[in-house]
């Protein structure tokens, strides 16, 4: 899938689940709202004390599944490396590493 198509999907849909990795290797998943920053990267805002922030500081790997509000329907999965940007509340920028089409997936129901 073309990254531009995934970016357009994220412009239109904000509901998502973010997967990060705990210290022991298990997944930790969080419902989030997602947008795009000026560079076209997925961006999520969270509290500094949230587990997802701690997990991403230790291990920046992340996976994001973005779906339509009705839940049943098309969705996009993005896998890549997150950058934690600090401020009043940290933001994450999830940059999709271009390893091939497996990084950005879509599904239509």
Report a brief summary of the structure.
The chain has 109 residues and is an alpha+beta fold. It contains two helices and eight strands, in the order αββββαββββ.
What does this structure look like?
By secondary structure, the chain is of the alpha+beta class. The protein has one domain (3-107): Electron Transport, Fmn-binding Protein, Chain A (Pnp Oxidase, Chain A). It has helices spanning 3-12, 51-58, and strands at residues 15-21, 27-33, 35-36, 42-45, 61-67, 75-85, 91-96, 104-107. Strands 1, 2, 3, 4, 5, 6, 7 and 8 form an 8-stranded antiparallel beta sheet that branches. β3 and β4 form a beta hairpin. The radius of gyration is 13 Å and the shape is globular.
Topology:
Blueprint: H1 3-12, E1 15-21, E2 27-33, E3 35-36, E4 42-45, H2 51-58, E5 61-67, E6 75-85, E7 91-96, E8 104-107
Antiparallel strand pairs: 1-2, 1-5, 3-4, 4-7, 5-6, 6-7, 6-8
CATH class equals Mainly Beta
Biggest sheet, in brief?
A: 8 strands, antiparallel
**Which percent range fits the helix content?**
10-25%
> Which H/E pattern describes the elements?
HEEEEHEEEE
Tell me the fraction of residues in β-strands, as a range.
35-45%
Give the oligomer, counting copies of the same chain as homo and different chains as hetero: single chain
What separation lies between the terminal Cα atoms? 16 Å
CATH architecture tag: Roll
Count of beta strands: 8
CATH superfamily: Electron Transport, Fmn-binding Protein, Chain A
Q: Helix- and strand-based class?
A: alpha+beta
CATH topology: Pnp Oxidase, Chain A
Please tally the helical runs, counting DSSP H or I stretches of 4 or more residues: 2
Number of discrete domains: 1
